[in-house]
């Protein structure tokens, strides 16, 4: 079927003359000879210390001379480009070329990859009708297929042709070029630079809050924090155009870091009748939320793209094990676009069930999930496995009632007497109940000190209660103190009582512990804090600022940070008051 989209001839702007000026004469002159015939096919120039300089074209690789690259020549190039940022990328002012560095163990640059940046006008003719819909669009494809080039052209069309307020979050200055003045290829679109790659998600939110954009353009969404920021932007009614690595939408489903871009995946257990009706396993995967991006484009080749114009339907179809319907769009050299509609096909290779899936919205928590607790309920008499008399007798044999006591015990995995009866003093009952319930701990709270196996008390309260201390001493009941009435403190104390406080076993991080109401907003805020700690603060040793939240939610985030034994504080004025997390 022929598209009604008007055809356009593609125009290319590459500023190769400015790139040539950074190379020494012996390399520049040889490179200039090749460019007279194959300038449009040049992809990058590679200079590695002690190796022959290479020019990489789309169809071959050519050595530029017979002598290896020297340190002096590398330094010559370095002095003629911009400053290398923390991601080892630099550029040439007012051009789109990207210069990437390879360093040795001492930090010296021993290699350069000089990637050619081109502004290709007319490259998005295949999806221009989708851009005009105002829906958020995600571009997928392998490195080098032209995602950034398409993103640059989309920004120009939205800003110049459709007269929209467009802000580009330019992490590595790859979209709008190096220097303070953006490249003309982005038209009237504005560009926000990012000081460090790990701050990209903060700049995304800042762009929305400070500059009232109608469209946000972002390249290479690669972390969960950036995916979370993208969702926040989309939910505020701003059109989002972004790219991510991955050839197909199915790749995103299987990528736990980026699955939220397509709605996230959760495990659902069906009833027997529903499972039979669907002819599926009882445990299946389903989409848990609307996708951040309404449209996804798989850029298979430079002139052949696959369009999913309803990502929700595509994800639901894939999770049922069926190959979804899609549009295959191609463009010829004259700019004529052809659209072929592919229908859903018969059974596709099913995605793995929860037992083997790598995508899980919430990790199983508690002792039962970790294998530390046998699946025996404390007061149950239901046979374990069958209905015979032998099964019933065996089930009862697991439970023993202590003489002269109401306590009923069941053996733990190592022969422990469970549950452990706790007498609490000075600690909120709701906090204790939440920890026990969410983490599924073998602990029973008792109001009778005679029945207690241990006392858990607030440190500031117990030191003034000599009577309780003396009774516990006479009856040889251990006293465990908590410094403050918080979830992390209570969790550590309970783990210590159950002999689970092993440094080699990570403490469970169940976000439901720290959420009072369990609302989506609270869980989202806690998830943001968890990702910041686990992906940036701990591994990289860098502080992180979170998004503005209410005082109630910030308190929950503070408790979660304390769980990781890190420090945090609130700063800023309402309604922009937010948390800053510090490394240990």
UniProtKB/TrEMBL annotation:
Keywords: ATP-binding, Nucleotide-binding. SUPFAM superfamilies: P-loop containing nucleoside triphosphate hydrolases, R3H domain. The keyword Nucleotide-binding applies. Residues 362-385 are annotated as: Disordered. Residues 520-584 form the R3H domain. InterPro entries: AAA+_ATPase (IPR003593), P-loop_NTPase (IPR027417), PTPase_dom (IPR058670), R3H_AAA (IPR034081), R3H_dom (IPR001374), R3H_dom_sf (IPR036867), Spore_III_AA_AAA+_ATPase (IPR045735). It comes from the Bacteria. GO terms for molecular function: ATP binding; nucleic acid binding. It holds the Pfam family R3H. This is AAA family ATPase. It comes from Waterburya agarophytonicola KI4.
């Amino acid at each position: 079927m022929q598209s009604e989209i008007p055809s356009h001839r593609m125009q290319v702007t590459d500023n190769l003359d400015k790139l040539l000026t950074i190379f020494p004469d012996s390399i520049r002159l040889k490179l200039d000879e090749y460019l007279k015939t194959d300038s449009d096919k040049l992809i990058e120039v590679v200079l590695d210390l002690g190796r022959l300089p290479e020019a990489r074209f789309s169809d071959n690789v050519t050595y530029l001379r017979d002598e290896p690259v020297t340190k002096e020549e590398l330094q010559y190039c370095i002095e003629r480009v911009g400053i290398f940022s923390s991601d080892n990328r630099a550029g040439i002012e007012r051009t789109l070329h990207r210069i990437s560095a390879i360093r040795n163990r001492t930090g010296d640059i021993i290699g350069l990859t000089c990637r050619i940046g081109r502004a290709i006008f007319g490259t998005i003719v295949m999806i221009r009708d989708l851009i005009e819909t105002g829906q958020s669009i995600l571009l997928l494809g392998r490195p080098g297929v032209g995602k950034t080039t398409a993103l640059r052209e989309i920004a120009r069309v939205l800003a110049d042709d459709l007269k929209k307020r467009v802000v580009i979050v330019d992490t590595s200055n790859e979209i709008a070029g190096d220097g303070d003045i953006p490249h003309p290829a982005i038209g009237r679109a504005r560009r926000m630079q990012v000081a460090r790659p790990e701050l990209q998600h903060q700049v995304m939110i800042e762009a929305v809050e400070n500059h009232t954009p109608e469209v946000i353009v972002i390249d290479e969404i690669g972390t969960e924090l950036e995916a979370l920021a993208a969702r926040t932007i989309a939910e505020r009614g701003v059109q989002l155009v972004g790219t991510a690595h991955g050839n197909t939408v199915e790749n995103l489903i299987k990528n736990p870091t980026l699955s939220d871009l397509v709605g996230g995946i959760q495990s659902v257990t069906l009833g027997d009748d529903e499972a039979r009706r669907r002819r599926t396993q009882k445990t299946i995967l389903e989409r848990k939320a609307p996708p951040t991006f309404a449209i996804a484009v798989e850029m298979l080749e430079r002139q052949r793209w696959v369009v999913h114009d309803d990502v929700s339907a595509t994800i639901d179809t894939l999770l049922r094990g069926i190959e979804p319907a899609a549009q295959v769009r191609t463009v010829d050299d004259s700019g004529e676009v052809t659209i072929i509609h592919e229908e859903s096909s018969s059974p596709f290779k099913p995605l793995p069930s929860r037992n083997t899936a790598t995508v899980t919205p919430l990790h199983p928590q508690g002792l039962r999930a970790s294998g530390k607790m046998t699946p025996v309920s404390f007061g149950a008499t239901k046979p374990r496995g069958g209905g015979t008399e032998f099964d019933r007798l065996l089930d009862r044999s697991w439970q023993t009632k202590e003489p002269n006591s109401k306590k009923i015990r069941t053996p733990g995995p190592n022969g422990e007497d469970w549950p452990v009866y706790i007498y609490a003093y000075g600690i909120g009952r709701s906090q204790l109940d939440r920890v026990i319930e969410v983490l599924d701990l073998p602990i029973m709270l008792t109001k009778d000190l005679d029945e207690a196996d241990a006392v858990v008390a607030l440190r500031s309260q117990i030191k003034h209660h000599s009577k309780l201390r003396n009774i516990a001493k006479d009856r040889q009941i251990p006293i465990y103190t908590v410094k403050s009435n918080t979830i992390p403190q209570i969790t550590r104390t309970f783990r210590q009582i159950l002999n689970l406080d092993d440094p080699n076993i990570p403490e469970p991080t169940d976000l439901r512990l720290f959420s009072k109401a369990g609302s989506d907003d609270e869980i989202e805020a806690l998830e943001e804090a968890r990702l910041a700690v686990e992906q940036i603060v701990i591994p990289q040793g860098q502080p992180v600022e979170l998004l503005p939240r209410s005082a109630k939610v910030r308190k929950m985030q503070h408790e979660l940070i304390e769980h990781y034994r890190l420090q945090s504080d609130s700063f800023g004025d309402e309604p922009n008051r937010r948390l800053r997390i510090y490394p240990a």
